[in-house]
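FAQ
Q: What does a multi-component entry look like?
A: The components come first, one per line:
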Amino acid sequence: MIEIRWHGRGGQGAKTAALLFAESVLPTGKHVQAFPEYGPERMGAPVQSFNRISDKPITLHSAATSPTYVVILDPSLMNCVNVTAGLVKGGKIIVNSTFSPKEIAARLGINPKQVYVVDASHIALNTIKLNKPNTPMLGALIKVMDLDIKSILKDTKEKLTEKFRHKPQVIEGNMACIKRAYDEVVTHN
Amino acid sequence: MIKPIYSKGKIVAKTGNEAMAEAMRQIEPDVVAAYPITPATEIVQIFSQFVSDGIVKSEYVAVESEHSAMSAAIGASAAGARAMTGTAAQGLALMWEMLYIASGLRLPIVMAEVNRALSAPINIHGDQSDTMGARDSGWIQIYSENSQEAYDNMIQAVRIAEKCMLPAMVTTDGFIISHCMEVVETYPDKDVKKFVGQYKPQRALLNTKKPYTLGSIELQDYYFEHRWQLAEAMNKAQDVVLDVAKDFAKTFGRKYGMYEKYKMDGAEIAIVVIGSTAGTAKVVIDELRKKGIKAGMIKIRVFRPFPAAMIAKDLAKVKAVAIMDRADSCAGTFAPLYTDVAAALFAHNEGKMPKMENYVYGLGGREIAPEHITAVYDKLAKIAKGKAKPSNKVEYINLRK
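Then the predicted structure of the entire assembly, as tokens:
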């Protein structure tokens, strides 16, 4: 079983990203969980959400404390939240940032090879015209986890079409976000 | 792909609230009256969207309070409609006097309830104080470990309630399940509708050909008999729950009972627990069993009616048992689940009791992690070996004193 922790600020869509990710991974045959940090979301406040993915049914309903992947939607959270807490050995951190993996690794005190960056805010502003970096970060996570992007894009499109049947205009932009961030996420080389 | 248990089942990812709303869509009651409250809001929000989109033909009554929600559900049910509602915590508390009216009038209303702490201090997180307070209201209470059970329990509750002529509430733990997306198998609409069947009330106020009096005053002469009939209906509800579960297993393949026994075969130490914590405990029990420790669990599904005789039998051979309550009684005695289990063992086992402890945990959503449950079993193992004495008062888990 692996755990994923999403760090965002209220309004950035960290919860939606975790839910969407769970729905996207389900068709690969894995058991999934997605849940927000149990609290009311306040615009701009640090929030967390979580995923668990396993080959076996997941009965655990306690907090996820040992993430293999940490996804950071807002880089300023690195100033006020312990984003590496519980990160497993060799675990990976994906940050929405214009800084290099080396710079971020130095700040977090981890190996640069554990760090991945993508300018998710830029991608979001370019596609959906809103600074909602959640779907780009979903695309980056899919790349870092080496998941099948084609089948996930297909499933995600179906899910978004169903979910946003009252807001169809948001679907194409978010699909483009996922695809672009998947292509643009980089690590230290 | 994850294989469905039912041949025509569909594997989806849903939160507890989505699963309950989906069950309601498939049940398609005549009337839903509700007022939104965290963490149950989504259930009626999603359902109201189904109504607005014309996906269901149900009448949705957006009322101005939970007291009115229950009142409207009572009116609809008395008229002869299949009526449902949903709420949590303070919302359930505000329904209080109407809960007793629903059961007293023998109206089979089904409620999707999300367990949340009661104020004060104000708190929106999961614990079972709200429904535990309603345990003597004459409502059937069915608790769910996860989203799948929430979905399955909603479907079964309709039949149970209507057969017993008792209202029923189905619960999930607030946020922990209500907002947790996990794998759920759903069944085709047609099959759910067939299982639930059409509601044919024995009597209905709108049936003008058979007029009858409802809600009359009964003083010293008949009140007592009607309250006794209510208690008798609850006593008989266990057979109905089990019959419906049997038919459910035959139809959809998932087995349910009054409670689930997990690794109770040859168990020397056990816990009794309700809701999502049972899932976390299963992980702990699997680890303990690997080490040769004979640990087991009873997960209560139906708390009202309470399966006293059955539980007493299943706990008779256990050496030490911890009853874990996610609600406190604040009564100078023990918490609700412990009180019922202790009474059951005392009444049915001729004084032969396992050693017992009572733990209160997780109030206001306080974390309950595997290590907390492991510590409970460690103490039970010592008690079973005679190396420790059970506490004679409520013990608290993960609390700063």
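Q: Is there any commentary attached?
A: Sometimes. For this entry: Residues 26 and 189 of chain B are 5 Å apart (CA to CA).
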